[in-house]
Structure formats: C-alpha cells, structure tokens
Amino acid sequence: MMKSHYLALALLFCPAVFATTAAPEVLPEREQARLMDDLLQQRLTQILPPLMQRENIDMWLLISREYNEDPVLKTMLPATWLSARRRTMLVIVNPGTGKAPELYAVARYDVGTAFKKAWDVEKQPDQWQALADLIRSKNPKRIGINQSSSYGHADGMVATELDLLKKSLGTDLSGKLVSAEKLAVGWLETRLPGEIEQYKNLTAIGHKLIARAFSNEVVTPGKTSTEDVVWWLRQESTRLGLPVWFHPTVSIQRPSSGKFDQIKAFSAAKADNIIQPGDLLHVDFGLTYLRLNSDQQQHAYVLRPGETDAPDYLKQALKHGNQAQDILTGNFQTGLSGNALLAKSLQDAKAKGLKATIYSHPIGHHGHAAGPTIGMWDNQHGTPGSGDYPLYPNTAYSIELNVAVDIPAWGNEIRIMLEEDGYFDGQQFHYLNGRQQQLHLIRSK
Questions:
Q1: Domains in the chain and their CATH numbers?
Q2: Which of 42, 112, 321, 332 is most exposed, with minimal Cβ within 10 Å?
Q3: Is 284 helix (H, G, I), strand (E, B) or coil?
C-alpha cells in the first residue's frame, strides 16, 4: 500500500490532470483473493449465459494439464489455484431460457465453489470416459472447444487433448465439436461494473508510479539513466505487490537525435543513456492486479536551467496527440469492426492535418487482450481476423497511438506516443483515470 509521503510526492511532481486524486489502494492478498472469487462468480452467472446464447453453444469444454493451461481456463480457476491440477476438465452447460449455467469439474474434487465435482473414480476410473458419459447425459447439439486461427487467447485446446477428447467421444459426439472462438473472446473481453471500478484503481496506481518515476524523486539530470528509471519502476511495482506484465521501457527524444526509430523506441534503452536537460522522455508501463492488466504511455520534459515550463512547441505537440485520441475514441460505435474504426480514424486524423499512427487494443485478463484489433504499429491497413471482430458494450481498451510532429527548433521530427486505458459502455468511451494532457516536468539543478 502506498505511504502518504509517496502520495504527496506523486501529486507534487505530477502536472498532468487525471480524473481522481483519491489515494489508490492495493488490497491485502487475502482480500484480493476474496474479491477475485466474488467477481468470478458474478462473471459465471451474469456474463456467461447470454454469451452462450449469442454464440449458440450448448456446452463449452475447457481441458488443460498442469502448467500448460488454456488462457481461458486460467481465468475460471479460483484465486487460490495458481495453475491447473493434473488434468483439469471444466464443463459448462447452457440450459437456456435465462437459467443459470450448469458448471461441472470432471475431477476428484470441486474446482473452487463454482465447478462441482462430476467424477466418481470408484465407479469410473477413466477420467476421459467420465467426461464422455457426462456429455452424453446432457445431449448437447453444439459443443464448443477453444480453437482459433485469429486469437491465441481462444486457441487453448492443444493437439494432445483434442486427440484424446475425440477418441473418448467417438464419431457421433465428435461431430458436434465446434470452435468456441467468439464465445472465448466474449468471455475475456466483457467487463463487469465491479471490474471497471477496480480498473479505475489500477490505472490510478499506474499514473501515480509514472508521475514519481518522472520526477526528481527518481531522476537527477546528468546522472540518471533511462535504465535506472526502468528498474525503479520494476522494483517499486514489486514493493507494492503488483507484477508488471511486460518489462517497462523509457526512451529519449532530443534535438538532432536523428530519424525516429519505432522499434528502438519500444525496446530496451541503452544502459548508458543518461537523461539530460532538454530531453523529452517517454515511458511504456503496465501492471497486473486482480487478474486485470493496465497499459500506459506518457511523456516528461526535463527542464533546462532557468526554465519553469516546457517549450510551447512541445506542449502543442502533446495537444496533437490528445486530438488524435479524441478522434479515435469519438468514433467508437457498437458493431463497428476494429478495421473499420481504424480506417475512419486515420482518415479523420489526416483531414485534421495530423500524421497519426494507431495501434490500439483491448485490455482485460491479458495486456494485449482478446477483442477487436484497432491497427498495429507496423500495419495501418487493417488486420484480417481479429481486426474484423466488432466492438461490443462493456469492454475495455488501451488507446495506443502516436502522432509525428515536426520541430524546427530541434531540427527533426518527434513522436508523441500516448497510451491510456478506458472502457466503452456501448454509447461512449470513458477513460478509467483520465489521460495525460500536460507534460510531466523534471527540474535540473
């Protein structure tokens, strides 16, 4: 949990305006587990039935061996299960007509409180045969399994398990197997109101850590390297009990620094890249909390001696980035595909004179989560498969993009690279904890 003096420092050195100034809190481990299990129970009863109806799937099978878990199955395990056990088989039956789903575990014991044991080893010692018997007793018409060419998240049925499954089911039941791709994506992308509230807290924590990292608490111009800032973020995240889901990066743009290199900007900086007055800094940083993931990018300016604010041309460049964000989020519409949203937003940005590159993505149980792909940094022409998937209400996104801005005073073009997290309620996009609209400022001696 953040100490009060750390919060004071965060507020002192953070000129960027966010939606809340309330102190973000990291719950104790036991309370986190209780909350995760409560949210899982709500998801199983509130989100799952309408999704199964929407995708016309009567039964959903999730089968994994320990340490080789299906990405979807991992989201259905209780908080105290850090992996599957031996071979874990979950069976979800949709009885239809608005009834609660039937949740079974073909295992020696219940899987949490939701999935009830459905295997009597004394009567049937073969686990696969026990699964086949359960399936026949429910007589489903369409049995969903996680196979997908577009989403790794929805492709968790490995070849060995599929082969054994088909052998146990026989020809008749095997003919009922269908891809559960859209059901899996829908499950992963749909957010409960309670999850959105926790997401607001998570993104606030991320903003606070970035504000501290981009302050004189961490940076001494002329001495501190970008790698020093990166490892401070890693260490402080660990101290708070919040793992990062990718290694952070901190990069520098400065006068006459040459042509912008997208790949270098998002890879680890040189260990000897010392931060100097006049530098424009950039950070890419993401945390995991309560099975949710954040993904944030912001900028800071290192004041030169005698300066009290960033140059107007950099502040104006940031406004161009905010304008591109507004264009993209203003185009969110239920049913619009990620590719269509990308094309319209790029066209609108060009009409406004902005040189934008858009590569936004869903967030949730994964940092780069399941849902509509909205551009990729190396592909601005649409992504077959995941880019064709439509926007649904109650889904969360990381608004990730950059805008190229020519800075004559620097003799080169810079990129304002922004990434802020928010959610789409079906009508409007909302940032979870505001967004950066002013540069963080770091003082020089």
A1: 4-25+192-442 (3.90.230.10), 56-179 (3.40.350)
A2: 42
A3: strand
